[in-house]
């Protein structure tokens, strides 16, 4: 009887705790979203995709994978990104998260049970749908929690994906190296995890508002309204007026009005026109324009490297003849990227003054690591170069994200984020068509990485020249100011002498 009483008491406490979580305005949706994020990123087979496709399970050649299969992801991502970005906000995020979960399942079902180049191209199309709908995962939480918890829930959602990616890579490496598990069963484990993520998406609460199309009341922040009151305290860049300061009157009118939830065509056209206007105003500051330029250029190159790095590894050390450590390398790269990203928050540097120099220097390191990947025949040197490349990119993208976000409201930051990624995808598509696709040059993977290294060398050159120009301009201004002050002091001394 006492044991039954203890069990009932424990169950009662658990139920009370669960009711408290459900009634909380932010804990329950954050918990469910983190569960979704964890299982959607728990894909131990992903570091071994190229060996799986070129192995006995799928029997594709390395040229078919490189020049015919992988390019489809870039094309589908480009086609789907912009409409999905708008539909995500219009449908208020949750249906798009479920769509992402379904696309994950279709992708891995095709990986497991379909054969041939055409089937794998369709598989890449659905994976393009997965990446295009990823915006819903990060935007959802801002529509269901108050601004008081933005920083906390953002850190939870991003951290859980990094943890899950690292755990999945380590698990995959251990299963391949120690248990000698085939890649087929790694994909089966990934499918099971993705199925759990898909189920978790149905437990997410449906948001009542969204960032653009369903703004049925003014968003509240700890400082006041989300927009004019918050942005009035944002510092300008190098003493120049920010976009919000330049357009204060227009911004005030945009933020202060409340948009009723309306399904009319007129309302939707008005919202699209307002989005275009806001996007144009976002690029009114040269500083934001330069950061966005680096974001688009570097992200295009980064996505291209990540998409084809396994092909290069397989070229340097074929999986049929060598023990491969793709999972361990991806885990180490994710960990180092997390460390470098976190380190940015503790470094006290005037990024407005030194940011472009940092972009140039670390982009040069990226270029050097890619050149090393091209010229070396040692797989371990290739692995090490990849660690350097990914860490440098993650460091710079964190700085770039902060520099852009600090001068923008949440809505305008989301616009710039989406547009910068769209431009990056256009650039990546051009690179893919010309360099990779069999209907273009269809270059060998080693030659491709020589071109990618040259690409990042050009990026480094642009921003090093720009940073030198900025430093020289500031120095000239200081010298001019000092000379004018000196002349004024001489005149004052002469006047005192006359007196």
Task: Give an account of the 3D structure.
The chain is mainly alpha-helical. It is 76% helix and 1% strand. The chain is built from 19 helices and 2 strands. The chain has helices at residues 2-23, 27-41, 49-54, 62-90, 94-113, 117-132, 134-140, 150-177, 183-201, 228-231, 243-246, 248-256, 265-282, 286-316, 326-344, 351-375, 379-405, 410-436, 445-498; strands spanning 220-221, 224-225. A two-stranded antiparallel ribbon has the order 1-2.
List the helices and strands and how they pair.
Layout lengths: L1 H22 L3 H15 L7 H6 L7 H29 L3 H20 L3 H16 L1 H7 L9 H28 L5 H19 L18 E2 L2 E2 L2 H4 L11 H4 L1 H9 L8 H18 L3 H31 L9 H19 L6 H25 L3 H27 L4 H27 L8 H54 L1
Antiparallel strand pairs: 1-2
Structural class: mainly alpha
Largest sheet: 2 strands, antiparallel
**Rounded mean pLDDT score:** 80
Number-wise, the strands total: 2
User: Which blocks of ≥5 consecutive residues have pLDDT under 50?
Assistant: 217-263
Radius of gyration: 26 Å
Could you provide a short overview of the structure?
The chain has 499 residues and is mostly helical. The protein has helices at residues 2-23, 27-41, 49-54, 62-90, 94-113, 117-132, 134-140, 150-177, 183-201, 228-231, 243-246, 248-256, 265-282, 286-316, 326-344, 351-375, 379-405, 410-436, 445-498, and strands at residues 220-221, 224-225. β1 and β2 (224-225) form a beta hairpin.
């Amino acid at each position: 009887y006492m044991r039954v009483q203890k069990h009932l008491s424990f169950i009662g406490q658990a139920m009370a705790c669960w009711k408290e979580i459900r009634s909380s305005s932010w804990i329950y949706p954050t918990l469910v979203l983190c569960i979704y994020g964890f299982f959607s990123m728990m894909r131990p087979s992903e570091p071994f995709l190229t060996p799986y496709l070129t192995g006995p399970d799928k029997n594709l050649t390395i040229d078919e994978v490189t020049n015919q299969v992988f390019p489809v992801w870039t094309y589908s991502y480009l086609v789907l990104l912009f409409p999905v970005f708008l539909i995500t906000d219009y449908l208020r995020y949750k249906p798009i998260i479920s769509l992402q979960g379904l696309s994950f399942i279709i992708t891995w079902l095709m990986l497991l049970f379909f054969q041939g180049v055409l089937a794998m191209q369709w598989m890449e199309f659905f994976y393009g749908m997965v990446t295009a709908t990823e915006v819903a995962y990060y935007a959802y939480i801002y529509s269901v929690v108050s601004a008081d918890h933005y920083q906390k829930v953002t850190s939870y959602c991003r951290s859980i994906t990094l943890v899950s990616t690292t755990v999945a890579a380590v698990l995959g490496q251990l299963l391949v190296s120690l248990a000698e598990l085939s890649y087929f069963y790694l994909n089966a484990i990934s499918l099971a995890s993705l199925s759990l993520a898909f189920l978790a998406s149905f437990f997410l609460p449906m948001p009542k508002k969204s960032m653009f199309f369903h703004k049925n009341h003014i968003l509240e922040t700890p400082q006041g309204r989300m927009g004019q009151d918050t942005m009035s305290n944002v510092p300008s860049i190098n003493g120049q007026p920010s976009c919000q300061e330049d357009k204060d009157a227009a911004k005030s009118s945009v933020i202060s009005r409340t948009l009723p939830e309306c399904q009319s065509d007129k309302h939707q056209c008005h919202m699209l026109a307002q989005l275009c206007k806001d996007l144009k105003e976002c690029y009114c500051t040269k500083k934001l324009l330069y950061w966005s330029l680096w974001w688009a250029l570097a992200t295009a190159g980064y996505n291209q490297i990540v998409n084809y790095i396994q092909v290069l590894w397989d070229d340097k050390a074929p999986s049929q003849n060598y023990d491969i450590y793709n999972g361990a390398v991806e885990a180490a790269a994710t960990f180092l990227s997390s460390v470098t990203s976190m380190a940015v928050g503790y470094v006290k540097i005037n990024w407005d003054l030194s940011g472009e120099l940092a972009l140039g220097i670390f982009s040069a390191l990226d270029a050097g690591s890619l050149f090393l990947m091209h010229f070396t025949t040692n797989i371990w040197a290739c692995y090490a170069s990849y660690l350097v490349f990914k860490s440098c990119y993650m460091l710079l993208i964190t700085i770039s994200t902060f520099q852009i976000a600090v001068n923008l409201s949440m809505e305008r930051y989301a616009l710039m984020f989406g547009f910068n990624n769209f431009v990056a995808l256009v650039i990546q598509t051009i690179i893919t068509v010309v360099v990779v696709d069999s209907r273009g040059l269809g270059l060998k993977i080693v030659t491709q990485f020589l071109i990618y290294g040259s690409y990042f060398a050009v990026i480094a050159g642009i921003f090093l020249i720009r940073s030198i120009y900025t430093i020289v301009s500031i120095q000239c201004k200081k010298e001019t100011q000092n000379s004018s002050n000196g002349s004024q002091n001489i005149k004052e001394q002469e006047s005192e002498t006359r007196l």
